[in-house]
Structures are given as structure tokens and as C-alpha cells.
């Protein structure tokens, strides 16, 4: 980890080209998140509608200083008629990876969601081969729950995933 201060903030219109890179540039998303070319206008439309912040989820820009380095996102997972949790994820530009930024950003998002919503559980998942993201989640205070066999289709084959969670009241690390 470096001394870089990681911050989260709402998406600005000027950030949309950074987000759009994740939809159009396989190198920007990396080997574990490229699923082919999706709708390239998705972020722009959602930003115009609600600034990428809604009741069922949202996205925040990850920064060090003023530089947008990627985003964190969350979406509502309905568990029962009276219960939901959040599923979170992060996507960083290649130049931001391997510096501890992802762990700190995900930890900040967990703290934000526990502070501003009454959920008991925040969960995340990643491919079983994505060791870097598994380490990032563990550094952010997540507990590995198990393997999800054949959960995602990417690059011509089905792949296993790994499920993680953190519960309200679990001790969280002191990453800054």
C-alpha cells in the first residue's frame, strides 16, 4: 500500500469518458471483466437520469487527488420480501491497479453503505482465478464464503467464482 489518499465521489459529466473506456476497451477492464462489447451509451443515459445514484444501487468515482482512476458500484440484491443486501464491485484503470487502491475504495464503500443504509450484509464476488481481487476483498475486511461453481460465462467457457461478505458489526480494517 502507498501513501496515496483514496477518495470516493459522485460521478461528474467529465468522468463519463473514463467510465465509457470500461465498455469499449478490453485492456482497460482487464482479463476478468471483459464480456464483449456492451451498450456504449449505458453510463451516459443513467448519468443523465439520476447521476448514477439510485435507490437500487449506484456508482462512485475512485480518485487519488483529482484524477479519476475507476469506480466502485453497488446493487440491491433482494433476499426476501423484507430483506436485501448490497453486492459491490470495483473497476480500476490499469495504471491504478496493484497499489492498494481497490482495497481502500471497497472498504470506503462498505463503510458508506453501512452508514447510510440499514443493511446487515454487503457481499462481493469474483472469478476463482482472480487472485488479486480476492486479496483486495480480504484486505477490505471481507470473509470468503465459498466457491460458486460454473457461475460466469466469459471468453468461451464457464468459470467458477468466489463469494465474499462482510456483516454490519464485523471488524473492519483501518485502511485509509
Automatic annotation (TrEMBL):
Cellular component annotations (GO), alphabetically ordered: cytoplasm
| A Pfam family matched in the record | Acetyltransf_3
Q: Which residues form the N-acetyltransferase domain?
A: 6-160
The molecular function GO annotations come to: protein N-terminal-serine acetyltransferase activity; protein-N-terminal-alanine acetyltransferase activity
Reading the lineage from the top rank, the first entry is: Bacteria
Task: Tell me the keywords, alphabetical order.
Answer: Transferase
Name of the molecule in the record: Alanine acetyltransferase
Amino acid at each position: 500500500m502507498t501513501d496515496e489518499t483514496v477518495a470516493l465521489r459522485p460521478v461528474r459529466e467529465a468522468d463519463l469518458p473514463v467510465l465509457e473506456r470500461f465498455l469499449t476497451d478490453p485492456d482497460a477492464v482487464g482479463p476478468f471483466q471483459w464480456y464483449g462489447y456492451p451498450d456504449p451509451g449505458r453510463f451516459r443515459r443513467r448519468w443523465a437520469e439520476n447521476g448514477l445514484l439510485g435507490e437500487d444501487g449506484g456508482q462512485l468515482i475512485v480518485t487519488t487527488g483529482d484524477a479519476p482512476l475507476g469506480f466502485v458500484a453497488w446493487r440491491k440484491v433482494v433476499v426476501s420480501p423484507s430483506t436485501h443486501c448490497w453486492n459491490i464491485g470495483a473497476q480500476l484503470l490499469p495504471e491504478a491497479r496493484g497499489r492498494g487502491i481497490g482495497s481502500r475504495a471497497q472498504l470506503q464503500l462498505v463503510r458508506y453503505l453501512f452508514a447510510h443504509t440499514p443493511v446487515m450484509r454487503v457481499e462481493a464476488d469474483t472469478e476463482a482465478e482472480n487472485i488479486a481481487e480476492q486479496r483486495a476483498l480480504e484486505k477490505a475486511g471481507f470473509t470468503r464464503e465459498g466457491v460458486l461453481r460454473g457461475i460466469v460465462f466469459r471468453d468461451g467457457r464457464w468459470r467458477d467464482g468466489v463469494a465474499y461478505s462482510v456483516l454490519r458489526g464485523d471488524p473492519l480494517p483501518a485502511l485509509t
